[in-house]
Design brief:
- This protein is α/β, with parallel strands linked by helices and 303 residues long.
- 39% of the residues lie in helices and 19% in strands.
- Strands 1, 2, 3, 4, 5, 6, 7, 8 and 9 form a 9-stranded mixed β-sheet that branches.
- Helix 7 runs parallel beside helix 10.
- The protein is globular.
- The mean pLDDT is 91.
Length: 303
């Protein structure tokens, strides 16, 4: 058993849009109110010098425990996270996003999982925080906005992967596995891939715990039909390449169970006259399926 009451935690998140400056302040403000206080915060600016110089001004506000780094050339979230991890000093690395609000006992609840020596990676619950005029989404497709969804485990258990808006892992894991550099939209698979690689290295070492909670901000533009189609198509397309990335023959078990959940929900929403939810879930299901089909054909053509 590992004692976690004095571990140094490194909280890391990447940023690249100056338009999200107010979101970044929200992250830092909620981090500063943690019940567990032995931590450092590292922000990695991904290729935006204007944002970098603006964030440097926050050093006086948040003290010596805040570090602001910059990658001169934009490389995507995976590269930025790796930069932050290399510069960190923590025994436990915690990854989050630049558009979340964090519950006060977040770190405390994440850390308790590492009392078990066999656990290498932990993920927590991510709830939507809808901005003004953003329409609520069906729970089955909340993954589109980076949140925990209906079809995801609801109790603490071992899982294939967790979501990086609420992810923690032991530092020694990074000596073996890192976030894979991404190309175009495939950074969205980095969470899945690092979970898969961790489980391949030590089976059963990735855990989902619903108690560490963050709230993912959902703006209006992420609740439009266009965004649903684009995001879900990309997800399906990239998932077609998972088999190439893993030795697990049953790599799509999670996706198969999820599809059953969505199909059931569509019927339920039709029968209860919640037609908007039925339409949204149908659009997402069709878009994911189309993306997966085209991705599969593309993969076969590249062989």
């Amino acid at each position: 058993m590992t004692k976690t009451n004095n571990l140094l935690v490194s909280i890391i998140f990447s940023v690249y849009k100056i338009e999200r400056y107010s979101y970044i302040l929200g992250v830092l403000d909620t981090i500063s109110k943690q019940t567990y206080q032995n931590f450092e915060t590292i922000i990695v600016v991904d290729g935006n010098k204007e944002l970098y110089y603006n964030l440097l001004k926050l050093k006086d506000r948040y003290g010596v425990r805040l570090s602001i780094l910059i990658n001169e050339k934009r490389g995507g979230p995976s590269v930025a996270r790796n930069t932050g991890i290399y510069a960190s000093k923590g025994d436990v690395i915690v990854i989050t996003d630049d558009d979340v609000l964090i519950s006060p006992d977040w770190l405390e609840n994440l850390l308790r999982n590492f009392e078990h020596d066999n656990i290498l990676m932990v993920g927590g619950k991510i709830l939507p925080y809808y901005e003004k005029d953003a329409r609520a989404l069906p729970e089955e497709v909340l993954w589109i906005v980076g949140c925990t969804y209906n079809g995801h485990p609801v109790e603490r258990q071992k899982v294939r992967n967790v979501i990086s808006a609420n992810m923690a892992f032991r530092r020694e894991l990074f000596n073996i596995i890192s976030f894979e550099p991404s190309h175009k939209g495939d950074w969205r698979m980095s969470d899945t891939l690092i979970g898969i690689k961790t489980n391949e290295y030590r089976p059963g070492s990735v855990v989902y715990d619903p108690d560490p909670i963050v709230y993912h901000i959902v703006p209006k533009e992420r609740t439009t039909l266009y965004y649903f189609i684009k995001r879900s198509y990309t997800e399906g397309f990239l998932k077609a390449f998972l088999r190439k990335k893993s030795v697990d023959k049953n790599i799509y078990n999670y996706e198969s169970k999820y599809m059953t959940t969505v199909l059931s929900s569509i019927i339920k929403y039709i029968l209860t006259y919640r037609l908007r939810y039925a339409i949204v879930n149908s659009v997402v299901l069709i878009s994911v399926g189309t993306g997966f089909l085209i991705g599969t054909l593309s993969r076969k053509m590249k062989k």
